[in-house]
Amino acid sequence: MRTAGFVMTIMGLISLVFVIIGVFTSNKGGTVLFFDNSWFPIMFIFWFGAGISVLLTFPAEEKRRDRR
Question: What confidence tens digit (pLDDT) does each residue in 3-51 have?
C-alpha cells in the first residue's frame, strides 16, 4: 500500500512540475499553459493529497525484535 502512496505522490509532483513550467513559459498578459482547463492543478491536488494521506495512514512496518 505504501508503494501506491509513493506512486500517487510522484504523479502529483509531476503535474506540479508541468504547472510550474507553464507559469515560467507563459507570456505576460497571456494565458498560462496547462491552466487553460485547470486539469493539472486539480491532478496535483488530488494525486499529491491522496498519496500523502496513504503514506500517513500506512506507516513503514517496524522490524520485529524476536525475528532471528
Answer: 899 999 999 999 999 888 888 887 776 777 777 778 888 889 999 999 9
Contact 40/18 with Cβ under 8 angstroms? yes
pTM of this prediction exceeds 0.85: no
pLDDT for the residue 8? 94
Residue type, 43: M
* Non-local CB neighbours of 26 within 8 Å, separated by 6+ positions: 32, 33
**Number of continuous H segments (helices) and E segments (strands) in the chain:** 2, 0
Asked if 22 and 33 touch (Cβ cutoff 8 Å), the reply is yes
How far out from the chain centre does Cα 62 lie? 26
Measure Cα distances from 8 to 17, 23, 27, 40, 65 in Å.
14, 23, 31, 14, 32
